[in-house]
Amino acid sequence: MLHYILKKKLNLDPARDVKIVPLGDGPSILPALEKGVVDAAVLTTPTRLLANRMGFREMLDFDEMGIPYPYVGVSTLKVNVKKNPEITVRLVRTLMEGIQIFKTNKETSMAVMRKYLRGANDDILEETYHYFSAKIQRTPYPSADAVLTAIDMMSVQFPQAKAVDDNEIIDTSFVKQSESGISR
């Protein structure tokens, strides 16, 4: 994603204009930013909220740039779906039930986030909940625009990716099938 944005959106050469240092996940990146080991970092929520509270300024917001990106999704090989379609339906239904709980039961959602986002205070948890509750679709249909962006990103390194038909990648049938089994 970073290479794509630097090259396609900011007209920078990632190999020449910036030095990219892989540092791992958010909790690993934030101390490097704080100690001046790096000048900038790509952070996800809630780590970006912590960085803002520490006085760091947000330079770019990928969402605000209008770049649809499939950063959350469920993928598998077609052979797996053909071999076990009932497992795929159960997985999608479980995902949809989890989304429904997240969107309708804030107290439970906050408790789960508190468990897994160790060290995040209540304000950060609250902001994180509001951020994701606004972003997560109630019904998780795949975004064709996001898939097209991913294909475009991949084509920079693998030109043959441009020949990929997004209709061959996206299958909405399991979401449609699961929709009927989820109570609203």
Structural notes for this entry:
The protein has two domains: 2-53, no CATH class; 78-179, no CATH class. Helix content is 54%, strand content 0%. The chain contains ten helices and no strands. It has helices at residues 2-9, 26-34, 47-53, 78-83, 85-104, 106-116, 122-135, 144-157, 166-169, 173-179. It is flat and about 50 Å long.
Number of helices: 10
Order of helices and strands: HHHHHHHHHH
In total, how many beta strands? 0
Unreliable runs: none
User: Helix coverage percent of residues?
Assistant: 40-55%
Estimated structural class: mainly alpha
Number of domains: 2
Strand proportion: under 5%
Mean pLDDT rating: 89
Characterize the biggest β-sheet: none
Radius of gyration: 19 Å
The coarse overall form would be flat
Q: Distance N terminus to C terminus?
A: 35 Å
Q: What descriptors fit this protein?
A:
about 180 residues; mainly alpha; 2 domains; about 0% strand
Compile the SSE list and pairings:
Layout lengths: L1 H8 L16 H9 L12 H7 L24 H6 L1 H20 L1 H11 L5 H14 L8 H14 L8 H4 L3 H7 L5
Helix pairs in contact: 5-10, 6-7
Summary, kept brief:
It contains ten helices and no strands. It has 184 residues and is mainly alpha-helical. The two termini are 35 Å apart.
